[in-house]
Amino acid sequence: MHKKLFIPGPIDVQEDVLAKFATQQIGHRGAEASRLQRTLEEGLQKVFQTENRILISTSSGTGLMEGAVRSCTKERAAVFSCGSFGDKFYKICKLNGIPADKYRVEMGEAITADYVRENLLKGKYDLITLQHNETSSGLTNPLGEIMAMMKEEFPEIITVVDAVSSLGGMNIPQDEWGIDILITSSQKCFGLPAGISFAGVTERSIEKARTIENRGLYFDYVTLYDFILKKDQYPSTPTLPHYFGLEYQLERMEAEGLENRFKRHHEMALEVQAFAKKYFALKVKDEKYLSDTITCVENTRGLNISEVNKLLEPKGYIIANGYGDLKDVTFRISHMGDYTVEDVRGLLDAMIEVLGLEA
User: Fold this and answer.
1) CA nearest to 58, candidates 337, 246, 206, 226
2) Per-residue pLDDT reduced to its tens digit, 265-279
3) Which of 62, 149, 309, 315 is 20 to 30 A off residue 96, Cα-Cα?
4) Which strands sit side by side in the sheet containing 4-6, from one edge to the other?
């Protein structure tokens, strides 16, 4: 029996989208591949809301995160973290020998523009990393406010944003907000299998990268950028099945419309948040920072989440345990990709039943 994955990703892929992955291969150095690359970039630009070039990587989003800090940090990076995935940026910096300072707020609390300003004044930084959406706590940082402050007070600093669990499900206008490097991947709000990731990059970030040595090879932003600029192809063999699926999914996303897609994600989030408040508690206490793509629920009833999933599986559902320090004391329910409000209600009804909760 198929089980709907209400986990932070990968999530379910629609059957018609999956079918496109079985498209016969094409030569990745021919005119057909170049045409496909151009089509994908044009579609991605609409989702990113940008006129910037889009880099596509045959990797998880972590690859492009590593490429960003290696390619664009010359002096020192300021890593802002509100949870496990912000911490990952710091780990990437340290393991690549990039000087970095980490500024971390408590889990469930947001990184504000004031917090960013206060800490940037402590050192000389030429790059900062931020998460738009922290998957471990179900929190969305006020990125628009942070970026407005950055443009006004620190315009010289390159901004790198992890939007892996939100882009395509929440409104992140790259050009309007002035984000230099905006990164996401396929297995969450895009509703595709894992294995491919995307980054919208400004020209100024690429020009900065040209001044930096030892950018690596596979994730070097300059190499990727220049190769697609000249040939509409990539230096290494791409994952063509993902390309075929992405082309079709971008058409589906355009047909739905970004505003409708954002609205659907918000409506799904409201359903899960109402359930969490009625029967448990939300990890994020300030509701203006609640995510529209994933909800982190405090496990106030002391549930064994593995046992809960054993009860849910026969009904066709799976949820996620907490992550990292929040394992067992929280659990997470995603509401992203091509799921609908009806899908979410089906899961919540099943949870009410198997847990013996009062409807």
Assistant:
1) 246
2) 999 999 999 999 999
3) 149
4) 4-6, 317-321, 330-334, 294-298, 281-282
pLDDT at 85: 86
Q: Which residues contact 257 (CB under 8 A, 6 or more apart)?
A: none
Cβ-in-10-Å burial (0-12, 13-18, 19+) of 152 comes to: exposed
**Other beta carbons less than 10 A from residue 44's beta carbon:** 25
Burial class (CB within 10 angstroms; exposed 0-12, middle 13-18, buried 19+) of 97:
exposed
Contact 85, 136 (CB under 8 A): yes
Q: Are strands 127-131 and 77-81 parallel, antiparallel or unpaired?
A: parallel
Residues with Cβ within 8 Å of 132's Cβ and at least 6 positions away in sequence, in order, are: 140, 141, 143, 161, 162, 163, 166, 167, 170, 172
What was the pLDDT predicted at 2?
A: 86
Residue 232: CB atoms within 10 Å: 17
**Mean pLDDT, residues 88-107 taken together:** 97
Per-residue confidence at 172, pLDDT binned at 50, 70, 90? very high
Judge whether 194 and 53 are in contact, CB under 8 Å.
Answer: no
Strands (E), the chain: 4-6, 53-57, 77-81, 100-104, 127-131, 133-134, 139-140, 158-162, 181-185, 197-201, 281-282, 294-298, 317-321, 330-334
CA torsion, points 51, 55, 61, 67, in degrees to nearest 10?
Answer: -110
Q: How far apart are CA 161 and CA 181, in angstroms?
A: 6
pTM for the predicted model, two decimal places? 0.97
Q: Which helix (H) or strand (E) holds 221?
A: helix 221-231
